[in-house]
Amino acid sequence: xxxxxxxxxxxxxxxxxxxxxxxxxxxxxxxxxxxxxxxxxxxxxxxxxxxxxxxxxxxxxxxxxxxxxxxxxxxxxxxxxxxxxxxxxxxxxxxxxxxxxxxxxxxxxxxxxxxxxxxxxxxxxxxxxxxxxxxxxxxxxxxxxxxxxxxxxxxxxxxxxxxxxxxxxxxxxxxxxxxxxxxxxxxxxxxxxxxxxxxxxxxxxxxxxxxxxxxxxxxxxxxxxxxxxxxxxxxxxxxxxxxxxxxxxxxxxx
Length: 254
Ligand SMILES: Nc1ncnc2c1ncn2[C@@H]1O[C@H](COP(=O)(O)OP(=O)(O)OP(=O)(O)O)[C@@H](O)[C@H]1O
Ligand SMILES: [Mg+2]
Description:
Layout: E1 3-8, H1 15-25, E2 30-34, H2 42-47, H3 58-63, H4 68-75, E3 77-78, E4 83-86, H5 101-111, E5 118-125, H6 133-138, E6 141-147, H7 150-164, E7 173-178, H8 186-193, E8 197-201, H9 205-213, H10 225-253
Parallel strand pairs: 1-5, 1-6, 2-4, 2-5, 6-7, 7-8
Antiparallel strand pairs: 3-4
Bound molecules: adenosine-5'-triphosphate (ATP) and magnesium ion.
């Protein structure tokens, strides 16, 4: 059980789509948290096609007199029997109100482990005002998503350098690549960025649209390569988290 953050350096490589897709392919109950400070809930407007009204999310947690753990319970909405959602802010202007919520939310999310729930956080683009830095730093793993084009890798590179600095706080960073081999391969990207490759997903706009904007699934969606890769990515992320925890125990024991 773990808290996993997904973030990007530039462009829109597919953080929100991948967070939703991973949640629906996750082998255990999972809470999806929309922590992207850009606002406008990509999941409510996208995957849910605007069919569900905003009736509470991160801002309500920030404004609540309750503890973060209790306030969190009030705003969680089910998307399926195994997937629930905490909606993000409605506008970018609300992000400032979240400044103090991350610190208290981080331990509340970690505590969900006791109820058998993992957490996937859509942290959006790095470096924005209102970014959920405490979540990025307290997650069991924070994954940088990037495409394999030169501009994407170039933008990811400066963040990778920052992430690699001792004391910057990401506990167990890794890469999640979209469009492996188009043109650069896993090993090349991992080497250039100096970060471990955790998983990759195919560049498949038709399948991705299912989780991005609630498009009807194409034929053989469930058995196709996009969903198979999402399931494999879920396994690889869990293995990455387990390695990180093992390394931590090892470090403490020494
Ligand atoms: N694996 C994929 N293959 C092809 N297209 C994808 C894939 N994943 C996402 N996309 C597409 O990329 C576009 C951007 O996706 P998404 O909004 O999830 O990116 P993002 O990184 O969250 O962007 P932002 O930073 O703007 O929130 C969408 O059109 C989506 O369908
Ligand atoms: Mg997004």
